[in-house]
Amino acid sequence: MEVPVGFVAKLWIFLSFLPFFASLLLLGLLKGLIICPVAFTIIAVGNSALVIGLWPAHVIWTYYCVAKSKRLGWILKILVLLSLPVLLILWPVVAIAGSILGGIGYGFFAPLIATFEAVGERVTDKWKHCFLDGCWSTLEDSCTIVRDFMDFCFHSYFSYMDELSEEVHEDEKPMEIKLSMLPSGFLVAVLAVPVDVPLITAIALWKSPYMLFRGWKRLLEDLVGREGPFLETVCVPFAGLAIFLWPLAVIGAALAAFFSSFFLGLYGGVVVIQEGSLQMGLAYIVAVVSLFDEYCNDLLYLREGSCFPRPRYRKNKNDTNEIERGQSIDRNGSHSLNLVSEGSRTLKRAIQQYTPMQVWDWLFKSCEVNGKVLLHEGLINVEDVQECILKGNCKKLGIKLPALSILQCLIKSSKSDSSGLVLSEQMELNPTNFPRDRLFDWFLAPLLTMKEQIKGLKLEENEEVFLKKLVMVCKNDRPEEWDDSGFPSDDKVRVAQLQAVIRRLQGIVGSMARLPTFRRRFKNLVKVLYVEAIQMGLSLGGSSKSGFGGKFLNGRRNDEEGSIRSSTRERDGDMV
Q: What ranges do the domains of the chain cover?
């Protein structure tokens, strides 16, 4: 659509938009009021029941794993055991309160936003979708939220605790703190809360009007001028919705600053123990206010830096330089984004920003393709698939298969001229378009480092072929494991480097596997592989050569295939 030119044209577009927006808003509010009680009941009751029902098991297993852990020194272990009652009592309170607030917010706003999405240009029969969209889907997604929370309580939490209680290497030193620094750390934590909480809260409240009016100014410019993300007609209602809801976002930001200020202040005690200095902890109390103020200035495109003093609170000069360099990069990045945003928001829109869901989609699609190939090659057998579905033991499939997919991506990226990761011919992740999500930052940085390591190894084609087998078959703990594998290279150093990359990849995937969304989507993937295994057994006539037992080729096979096919069509919302 052409952008209106002139004050009269823009004013006419704005006035003609108001009745359209008001009708959508009223309809969305009505749907929200109807759906909210049901969605709230599902989320609040479901999550609260999980928290209360599993709380005794969480308490017992947490104490057992902390007491058994050899990763913690005796002083730190005793301190953790003494402080656990507070954390374990707060856990159900915070979880239930969060479920109540989340259920109300999601149950009300999801139908409201879906009403505006129903007027998209790609949507046919807009009248029907305006009334129906966001009703049943909100209830389904509410059930998905409870299911993801259940995966976290049943799987992720116990997985973290099991890792804490695992045996450590002989050369690994346990985490310990000096007993003499505990009084100093406690003193700094006590002093920091009454100092940092009021100051950080005051800064947030002082800059809330800036955030409110700057946000309204930007949204009105996008709405009237039809620039940036609101260039298309379909996006205009979202501008009105954003204008209407922007004060809630400002209030939420101020509340978030208030609650986070307690944790920022208490972290001063950690600084004392890390640096072994009371003076560094006192310096942190002052410096954290300056850091928060500078973060707010960068976020609101205000002047760089802060008017508050920032004393050095780290003894290690290298760490301090890294922090200062990171802050300088953030300021430069914010400044460049400011120029792009202020000068031409349509230019910023031209840079495609990938979302976490798109990266998840690529990963699981790649795992599906590789899984089918490995089934045909015999590197995955039907027992692995069956054990994952029936017993929930997915250690081989859940760790090695995604690690293989990511390894192939790293090898492909190392051969390209890309500064990031080449996921496919149509999708490339680089520092300018990767998801702006802290979680993905944790995973992306080590992957880029491993890409450079693989690039330095200059793998040959036959080595790449063998890597696929070695990732799935070997534990990759010692170079000797590859002696009889047929790997082309006899260089022990080269083999050890490749094994280190594989182990690190498996560690990254292990961290990903603790995310509830990962577990839910991987279960759907395993069902697809199960159907593929059944089809292979049918085509091969159930011979023992195929590796599929006769129990998968009995009379119930067609019923199982049909039920699993129907279940794989439901992607559970694919939320991140």
A: 1-176, 178-351, 356-574
